[in-house]
Design a protein that fits this description.
single chain; alpha+beta; globular; five-stranded antiparallel beta sheet; 12 strands
Amino acid sequence: MNTNLIRQALEQLPLPYLITDRDFNIQWYNSSLKKQYAYLSIMCSLEGMLFGYDPEAILRQLNESDAPLTLACKLPMTSVTLTLAPLREDSVQEVEAIVVTLTGTASLSESSNAPLTAFHQALRAPVSGLFGSISLLQRRLQDDFAPELLDMNRDCYRMLRACISISEYSEYINGQSAPQFQYYDLGRFLREQLEPAVPLLEKIGMELTLDLPQESIPCAIDSEKLALVLFSLLSNSCTFCDSRNQIHISLNRSETHATITLSDQGYGIPLSILPRVMEPYFSRGLDDLDRPGIGLGLPLSKAIMEQHGGTLALQSVQDKGTTVALSLPLNRVLPYQDLQLRSSARTYGRDLYSKRNIFLSPVLLPEDLL
């Protein structure tokens, strides 16, 4: 079985195709799939779309017959049908790989996008009002009912974080999330974003260290989107750990790329779920974590890095920690009028509703959110 020839043939076709191994790990997809099914191109496994089916039973059926198998996927708010065709050597009965064809609604339709839009608009405005009311009540009541108000304030941050994640992801899979690139000195950008978080995490017993070069590294980025990635990853490191966690963020450059590396000494990711962490809406909780996330942090971060022409690579060992490497190209050329280096505003660090506070809200001290 020559998979290279199969890939070359499928790449020329207008229909979206992907190839998985016998464990449904995605090995390859053609350009039509990435164009029509953007959310699938950031998934490592097909199992998320096979929710409700028994993967072993599917594999047995493919082993027993050369006939394609058609299944409806279970991904939220999509209407996609998967046709699975087995690939095997002539002399071997066991399936070696699976070719998957996709048909149906490629992204959120207007009808399915409308509830998300309504949800976002209906929730974010009241949450903004609640923030104002909580701040006013806190000043007026002072110590009375302070714990309850602090809990309400943290819950509002959680809702705001969910709004941002769902909105960004729905825009991405609908092709409505084009980055707004501008040139930044990458080291200075990271320093201005991350230094304010150092004392905040120190208060809860976590050490955040930065290794950022003083030399200028010009890079075209969407500062808001990259900040979302940084604080989403930092939030994960702070959440899945004990109080002795150490987090280190560094920046290095090669001739063509800059690499931001975040490493922690947290719980790490169990090997059994590591292939699924990039699946949209897949989330793992902890026994003492009463509000697990909605499962969009890593998929959205990977999508944003791909929009930048870069990559997100993750390595994790259970009980030892996790390392995430973000690679950004340094050769993106912007129009002449955008050649000036910009700086993220220093006031960002003091903004109560910055992405830093929103994404770190589950772990920050309550008083640091007021």
